[in-house]
Amino acid sequence: PAIHRAYTSALLLVALLVGCTSLTARCFSWVSWSPTEYQLMRDDRLRTDAFYHAIDRLAPGKTILDMGTGALALLALRCARASATHVYAVEAEPRAAVMAQETVTAAGLGERVTVFAGRSQDVELPRRVDLLVHELV
């Protein structure tokens, strides 16, 4: 319950910051994080470790979609390292998608992670996925 309240509060704060009065998908469709905000999110060990723990438990043998992978493709890489069969990493921001591809290639995981540049509703995946990972805050 405390985590849910904190998460909901964070979502409401983001909604207000982008000029929305309720938690609707259109409020978050083009939210863009500054490098500092992205670094704070990335370095939040409590949050990141919770994602990693869930991925380590659920990813092995699965085909996964990481929606909104970001420039560092953190969750996509973790899924691949946790023995996912394949990971589709989708990123709407073109520059971040290019960086995500570079990150995946540098990590040597290009054969197990496919990066798509585009909005999730516009991307055609080659096959059905078993699991969706997505982080907003």
From TrEMBL:
What SUPFAM superfamilies would the database entry show?
A: S-adenosyl-L-methionine-dependent methyltransferases
Q: Which Gene3D superfamilies match?
A: Vaccinia Virus protein VP39
Q: Which region is the signal sequence?
A: 1-25
- Molecular function per GO: histone methyltransferase activity; protein-arginine N-methyltransferase activity
Name the keywords, alphabetized: S-adenosyl-L-methionine, Signal
Q: List the PANTHER family hit by this protein, alphabetically.
A: PROTEIN ARGININE N-METHYLTRANSFERASE, PROTEIN ARGININE N-METHYLTRANSFERASE 7
Q: What is this protein called?
A: Uncharacterized protein
Give the source species.
Pyrodinium bahamense
Q: What is the lineage of its organism?
A: Eukaryota, Sar, Alveolata, Dinophyceae, Gonyaulacales
